[in-house]
Amino acid sequence: MFNNLKRIFAIAMLSTTLGGIAIPSIASAQSSPNQDNSTYTQKHREGGWKNLNLNDAQKQQLKMLRAATAQRVQSVLTEEQRSKLAMTKQSGNYKGVWKSLNITADQKQQISDINKSSKEQTLAVLTPEQRTQLQQMKTAHNRG
């Protein structure tokens, strides 16, 4: 059971982190495609969310949702954990950051609930066709 909880938490954290990184990339990818030449950003520009052809309203909704989710997750953390996370964000080295925060089981559950809600809200922003396309991209990514 503990392994399942760890797996769920890891997936939730990865989803939140990737969402936090991907959503801003969506807006910048369609507004200024040559702004950043880093491999990571370029990878997101060439595929993923851009392929969903989000309209401006959807982009704005997702941006607001991402910010609200990040704020809700921050509210679950202690001041010390938020400080560590902020320092990690500045350094850009995210490897092992969530383990180093020593998050309690209660915090894990709260964060998992927040991420589940955020995922549901994200999917609600998309059209049925976009949701289907997103699921197909995830399936293809998991196979590769």
UniProtKB/TrEMBL annotation:
Q: Does the keyword Nucleotide-binding apply?
A: no
Zinc among keywords: no
Region feature (Disordered): 28-48
What are the alphabetically sorted keywords of the record? Signal
Signal sequence residues: 1-29
The entry lists its GO molecular-function terms as: unfolded protein binding
InterPro entries to which the protein is assigned, alphabetical = Cpx_auxiliary_protein
Report the transmembrane regions from the record: none
Fetch the PANTHER family from UniProt: PERIPLASMIC CHAPERONE SPY
This chain's protein is named P pilus assembly/Cpx signaling pathway, periplasmic inhibitor/zinc-resistance associated protein
